[in-house]
Amino acid sequence: MRYPTIVGLMMALALLAGALPAQAQGGSPAVMDEGNNIYLVDGAKGPIPNLLPAEEVHKIRELVFSTPGSLHRVVSPVSPDDQAVLVKSRTTDFLNVNDGSTVRFNADPGWQPLSNYFWLDSDTIAQYAVYAGDESSMPYLLTGDRRSGASDATPVGLEAGFPVLVSPNGRRVLYATLPAETQSAARASAIAELAQAFDPLAQGGIGAIMLFSNLVVRDRETGESRPVATLTPGTRVEHAAFSQDGSMFALTAQLFPTDTRKPYDGALFSDLFYRDATGNLPPAENPFFSNNQLISFDFGSGQAQTLRALDGDGVVYSSVSWSSDNQTLLVKVDQPGRVVGRRYPQYNPQYRAGSSIRFYNRGLQEIRRLERIELSDIELEAAFLSPDEVLIQSQYRLDRRPWYYNLRSGELRDLAGSAGSYRNVTPTNSSRQLIFSYSSVSEAPDYYRMSWDGGALKRLTWANAALTERTNIKQQPLSFTLRDGTTHTGVLVMPGDAPFPPKNLPIVVYQEGGPTGPIKNQWYASVESPFSLLPSFGFGLLIVPLYGRYGIGPERFDGLVDGTNFGQIDIDAQAEIVAQLRARGWANKVGIVGCSYGGYFVNQSITRHPSTYDAAHAQCSLIDLFTEWSRGYPALAPWFEGLPPQAALEEYRRDSPAYNAGRVRTPLLAFHGTDDFLPVTVMENYMLQVINNQVPARLLKFQGAGHGVNVNGDGVIGRYAADYEVYGAQEQITWFRTYLMGQ
Description:
This protein has 743 residues and is an alpha+beta fold. The strands form eight sheets. A ten-stranded mixed beta sheet has the order 1-2-39-38-37-36-34-35-33-32, with helices on both faces. Strands 7, 8, 9, 10 and 11 form a five-stranded antiparallel beta sheet that branches. It is globular.
């Protein structure tokens, strides 16, 4: 996605937290008043002042630097004896799945993964890796002892290519080779890309082999090799998986178009990304579809079989899993976007509308489909537990849930016992248990175990139990039926001592960045996504996924941009929900907050509904679709609007808060990085109009920050990221206290 969430960057912030000095009280040159209620926050100028009492600052720091639920992860299969698994949060540890004890895995952080983790025996885990900065890009077998945590590395040579995937039993390895003419610089780039793209959480999470050509499967015990496929350079392997014993292998791949233009150089009519987003690219000419293929390979016979998406019914082959008896292949297929008013479907992965599951026999003949709205998440993961039983992990509404499916009986069972996010759900080998990380907006992450049927739940770790207790917040599921007959579900996060239903609770409504992607019920407490932050300071936080989100079905996803819906349908739905909050007596003061697309949502809401909200906080905001069209991502404004500005001037103007600043009446706090790819000058001009109209408003520009206060212009953790997060949270809390609580 163009506008990513900030979750993946919070781990480094957490590690920085303990090293930060206490901030100075009072004035500071680090916050410079530039006039007109515009301020420059610059960590290089000195300590940034605190706005709140010391005990509240301490609480903010504890929350902001707690580990987000998405970064509390199970990263390996369970050991062959069903005793241990590798987990990662702030450190990487061997977790005993019976008693919850841990042993630190002491591998050098310079190792970059080439392959998934696998077990050599019940005590020794392994992974192929390269060492950062090694010009030879020599692959090593990196091993770890679960008893001591000690690591070792053995070079394996380049004769067979680069090992990129290993079968669950550790016997078969997929190797990728580079074309012989590949230059050393391109070779190093390819290896770096592979190491960066590989997802160790999924057995087949390769994600990219852009410059590799030949794929070969090799037996680690006998040295026997079998060629699988020769790929055209530029082909992207989306997913690959071995069967349990390594005798069967499958992958999905497509030739991915290369964008040779400068980043953020605007839309171009002839560009493939633009033509796909606007529905002007026939499927037979669409590389996101026409080059997509599914390849199945039998190591014993050396035979490969292929299904091409172009020969199917319009879906894209996405991910794969073999049954434990090697007889059935599970394939996740992605549904293209089918936006009303556009001639052809949208196949760019960012704009695919949903997913479903299909089952094939060894001859690649389809034998069953599983199509349910609960399983329509584009990020769905599914893998066989046995010849007939399947574990599915899917986002449904706000929750990421595990599901049990029986291929023989057709039973589909929700295994989640609580609202929240069950992540990296990993089966044991013979004890029919599932190991996973769990968190929610009201519960900090820890590791758990339960049986395949969802029973016998056991908490394995208590690392964050005290934080959950100190935070003392709770959540309440809600639903709202609107005038058009649609029903939207969400969650209200509240202070632990607030009654339900609440009575005149100050409530802030939240929208995620993106807009594509789900909104996840998980522990997170940054200023950009204050799920667990604002409720800890007395506010209610209402989170409702509306349109353009996964987990609520393809129709709701496409609905954001159907016809001329963009800039209206989700904005108006949220305003109607707020009216219901007031009518029920739950809130007499309502705020709104969001970052990136969420920032757009805030600003569009207060221009389109100027009397609905009592306070607003917009961060890293897209506000000008004309600028986005001409100087932004080539496929975003085209997907939003479906037409170029020349053909829809009034629609672009109406959907751009920058040209409607005169309608703003809501007190507005705004954050923007000076190095954000969304131009800070555009935001500053918008805010000057709001301020000059005598609306209470403040713009804080964060020096050196990019798209979010905790990153720089390159999207990596900024030097003053931790300071900016803590100060930004204080500004946010103070703003909402002023206008929602009257303090």
